[in-house]
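User: Hello, can you help with two protein structures?

Assistant: Certainly.
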Amino acid sequence: MFRRNFLKAAAALGAVSAVQTAKADLLIPGAKRPNRPTPNPSEDQPSFILLETFAAQSTEKRDELLKAFDAKLIPERNKLGFDKVGVFYVDTELMKGDRGYDAAKFDSAVFVVQESASVDAILSLQQRVADEFEQFNVSDDLQYVDEEATLLQSVASQPRISVPYSNSERLLQLRTYNSPNYERNFKKAQMFESGELDVFKSCGMNPVFMGTAVFGAWVPNITYMLSFESDEARREGWGKFGQHPEWKKMSQDPQYARTATRIRNLFLRPSEGSQI
């Protein structure tokens, strides 16, 4: 499943490459093309963020998968040069009452996040993890039954993945803003870059990453993750955000109308071994 998804992604990126640029130019502008793609960008260099969603058969299988990813996947990805690998699952209690939440899809899901300097390094991951994934789904009693992959390119004002908190009670919030077309998607990105991201930070809503989708579900979209010390801090932060005068001004600005016509919101908890 991992290989199949990445082969599809590679084909899609190849089609884009044929129209717009040579394959070598898929590297972030300004990045040097190494003989062997190096995952980690410099501190101020924009990055590509790979978000994987693994669907387990039950919450029990999800918990097995979390332990297996902590023990095997994270160390293997670190060996490949990915220095921050996040593993998460949905806090189902916090999702109660959210009418847009797809419990059948996400209650038993495991999320994996990592970043890279280039598309080449992401695609080379597919080629170099054969041994890693031989450790999963080795019997008919599958640990996961499906996988989705989304590739994001970070926005300029949040170029790298950051880790604001590492306490065990921390809460991660993953949000996807789907736009009706790419013009509106670009405008939503501009909205974040023009002040909305700064309002987040001033309200104690610390971003882990923010990026526009290169491929994946719900395109075009902007997907971002926030980190909070606790759910109480999350509630306090969003309360401040909703009352912030700059946000009120931006939200009423007609140039930003219809930039996010569908929103997916997920409250996530980190696995014990998660590095984010």
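That covers the first. Now for the second protein you mentioned:
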Amino acid sequence: MSKMKYSIIIPVYNEQASVTNLFYSIKKALKKLNDQFEIIFVNDGSTDNTLSNLQKLSPVKIINFRKNFGQTAALDAGIKEAKGEVIITLDGDGQNPPEEIPKLIYVLNKGNLDVVSGWRFERQDPTSKKIISRGADFLRSFLVKDNIHDSGCTLKVYRAYCLKGLDLHGEMHRFIPAILRWQGYKIGEVKVKHNPREAGKSKYNYSRILKGFVDMISIWFWRKYASRPLHLFGGLGIFVGGIGIVMLIYLFIARLLGHISISDSIWPLIAIFMILVGLQLFISGILADIAVKSYYNEHHKSYNIKEIITK
């Protein structure tokens, strides 16, 4: 029995009008590669006929979630189920053309790369979505520095060994290339076509924008300080303590010279109290984030699989 070469993972949520055509387009594109492949759809709690339409297809593997857990959770489940040496991901709305997959695989092999990310050079999205994406790209380039143009493009190919031990939460699927780059893997990028959405409704909303921004801050901290938190906390402690010492010296000298009276003033106490509370909240938030990641990585998944259907 030949070894599985390619695993393609497609998260879908209420995409009943897209999944059938998408499946046959994927099948046609992968057959050109002349290697064994598997197609994995992750049904992310769809409430329409997406699941029943998927069950009419073959060959296919369907990971069926009990409810909607989000795209990151769906990709994580698909990656953990995949058996291929190369893992391919793309959106389930048909906007990522499957015929672009061989191009990414060619660059992966030619450049001896570990990851190749699609770059939607001419995006077929509403203007408002493009503007928001450009703003997110600017913040990402400043905080995350993954050195690619379009981290939000789901169309990507990975060597399977890159993803072993990687657990995804929140909206972290956008930052997989950044995480892998920090681990020393070689990342490439290819311009790909982007089709307009022909059916269904976009799942992109302001809630996802906010979650993505919070995850971006978390990943920035994780990259810089996860292995050396004392550099951050110690630096803040020295900075805040230095301010306290300077204030104390100033108040002591001013009091000796008779310039001020601090016996009946509450403002110095209020200022110190606010600084300490803000510092405590910040540090508590970071430590809680580390604790949550450790909990998920070791004990728990952020999603619940109802069944895995193989057709």
